[in-house]
Amino acid sequence: MKLNILKMSMFAFLITGMLMSCNDTPAENVEEAEENVVEAQQELEEARQDSMEYVTYRTEAERKLDENDQKIAALKERQRTAAKEVEDKYDRDIEEMERRNKELRDNVQTYQQGGRDRWESFKQKFNEDLDALGNSISNVFERDTTDNNR
């Protein structure tokens, strides 16, 4: 008899616990689902905007990298007519600029999208590297022009 009372008590306790955990009404469930849909739509829109921004940025970066390729090709052409001692220096400079330009191109093409902070950090670093390379190319052009005027 004590065993039956114990079983009945446990069963009553279990049923009471289940009933108390189901306190969400269907209206609350619908409201929560609607909130989840709104949040998902906002996240999707942010992802679309980020993606469009990335495509635009990548296109512009590719254009700048192509310009660098053209400037490097012009440097190679000038290098062919330079004096032998200048030619060796040109070779090293040009190889380094080509390597850096290719590395930047690979970076922008293989970028894996992440959060907004990651994107902003990538853009800042990429722009700094691209500007530094552009300055290096310009400096070689200026040095070449100065050397030719002497």
What does the model show?
It is a single chain. With about 150 residues, the chain is mainly alpha-helical. The protein has a domain at about 60-150. Helix content is about 90%, strand content about 0%. It has helices spanning about 1-20, 25-80, 85-110, 115-150. The longest helix has about 55 residues, at about 25-80. The relative contact order is 0.08. The model has no long low-confidence stretch (mean pLDDT about 80).
Q: Would you kindly provide a brief summary of this structure?
A:
This protein has 150 residues and is mostly helical. The protein has helices spanning 2-21, 26-80, 84-110, 116-149.
Helix content: over 70%
What is the element string, with H for helices and E for strands? HHHH
Biggest sheet character: none
Give the CA-based shape: rod-shaped
- H/I helix tally: 4
Number of strand elements: 0
Keyword list:
91% helix, rod-shaped, 150 residues
List the helices and strands and how they pair.
Layout: H1 2-21, H2 26-80, H3 84-110, H4 116-149
Helix pairs in contact: 2-3, 2-4, 3-4
